[in-house]
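Need tokens for this chain, all 208 residues.
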Amino acid sequence: MAGEELRPIRTSNYERLGTCTFEGCAYIMRSKHLQLCSGHISQHLAGVELSPLKQRIPCEARDEHGNKWCYGCDTWKPESAFSKGSGKRDGLQPRCKACAKALYNHIAADVRAANRKIKYGLSPEAFHALLESQDGRCAICGTDNPGNRFWAVDHGHSCCPGEYSCGDCVRGILCSYCNPGLGWFKDDPENLRRAIAYLEGFRLKKAA
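Here are the structure tokens for all 208 residues:
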């Protein structure tokens, strides 16, 4: 309507990060940690030296065998290697399933690292150093499998109730089973000792 004040165009979280730091690249940064766009992140994950991105081949283009170009690994692949993409001109995602998964996992790890810094004051280096000090295993059960997609940071709730820690009360890295287990026992050693006595008593009773 005439005279109505226009709303400012909203800026996405990625646009706020700025552009890729690779020289000459004008694409939007997709990783705050790596400070790279999605194309250069794909190169980094592939373990190759970063280089200028090739001119994009139109998504609907196909080679003589009917294969589609993957923007992640720069390879012609059969259409079956791509997931469906609603809103895409050819109905398929621009990256093959393997490249899309690798990119998603990296961005998700980047987000988890940022959350650990906010919630526990742990930098990526501090987190990995703590996990290495536990030989890459859960500090309680000793498994090297997080039991989920990622490890959990445990902190003393008597110091910092809730999800956030001051950083000084971080106790260790636990698997996704032991971490909630401590919560169910209310972080109380007496409750844990009674649970042990209960289990041991039943085992002795069965053995008798």
